[in-house]
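Components:
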Amino acid sequence: MLAAHRPQLVRFFTGRTGSVAEAEDVVQEIWLHIAEPVAGPIANPVAYLHRIGMNIVLDRVRANGRRTRRDSGYVEATTTVTAGVTAGMAAGGEAIDDAPSAFDAVAGRQRIAQLAAALAGPPEGAMRVFRRHKIDGLSHADIAAEFGISRSAVEKHIAVALRHLRKALND
Amino acid sequence: MDATTQDPIDVAAAWHARIDAPDMDWAGFGDWLEADPSHRAAYDSIALLDAEIGGAAPAIAALLPANDDSAADVAPVARPTRWRWLAAGTGGALAAGLAVLLVAPTLTGPDDSVQTYATGVGETRAVTLADGSAMRLDRGSRVSVSGGTTPLIEVADGAASFSVRHDPSRTLIVRAGGYDVRDIGTRFAVVSAQGRISVAVAQGSVSVAPHTADGSAPTTLVSGQRLDIDPATGIAERRAVAPTSVADWTDGRLDYDGAPLTLVVADISRYARTPLVVDPSAAGLSFSGVLTIGDGSRLLDQLRAVLPLRVRRVDGIVHIERTGPR
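Structure:
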């Protein structure tokens, strides 16, 4: 029974969001999501539920960031994926709400170029693993097999790459 | 892990990289996040960056040097088509500002021939393009194909699906209305009908942008995504769809999973003989199920069989309204 995991999820998302009320909200949304049928059996229900919640939280973080920037005059071209709608609800997402500007187009191209340059740079080994995962779409297990390294080594490489990217891009 | 002296960014990155591990310690992660607000902020920043890169992956891929990332340095392997997109199927916001991949090449020269294909009310048609890619036209559609070094396909009216052979040396461009869809070795479908444009990707990814550069950033769609554009307002909506349902009209079906009624009616409008309008009373309804296209005349009846709808014909336009108590 998935409901048995609810207390654990609320506790985790309280840490994740900093607020018990928001954690309850997120967990409610997780439950709304899993009310829809899922194709195939779920191997690890606890992890699955956490990951759904993590995406929900990230959407909120991103939306809050947009609101803050919009309020301060920064216009950003955004798109939102609306997932399948549960019965009775209107589509739970936003359509593109800001017309992209010329500024955004240039900024977008520059950003992509900046990301590509960082991903092509050092540290070489870590970035190679990271690209294989993030750009080419391979799973950790597939990369481990391909490179003949352990799964945890793959994860370490990815962590190294991510922290270098975060610091190099410095926004 | 000793988190006391480490930069929260480093620790956040380490946690993030382990999220999909079978032995992921969620409780430990929660404790670390809770220990200090800077931990949460650091993790937000790592997760956002990771999601941004994931969202922009096709655009970034085009700018990376020739792919030698695989451990085996043999003949180049086709890029895996399984994109790690959103975990566990949530609707999530995608990164902003995805850039155009390529400068628009010269599309047709004076010597290039243009071939037009058209289908009648009840027929679909399969066409093999010069490069071996497969195109299929839906009922009542008209598509033109221009040769040249960069083939240009224009969906003048109706819908077409594409199964494109991956060839890094050239790009297929499908024009629909005022928009260009650039393939990145994929299977996708394009609709241009009744002033509405829709692009859905079954496999791989495409880039969609207005044909005439107006400063707006192109949008990348990957497998399982559908973009509906209203050119009059410039508003586009992106939603998740089952990859198997893309261009399901090929099999005479329209397949939906919790789609807004307005979307379903927009789709079936292509087969209807009179304009269809969804009344605000019905706009909140959603539909899950499969519609059989047939000759196109019974689609609305199929919807009425499962949804609380009534239709009213006024001045040659069919209004779809909600019946019964709300």
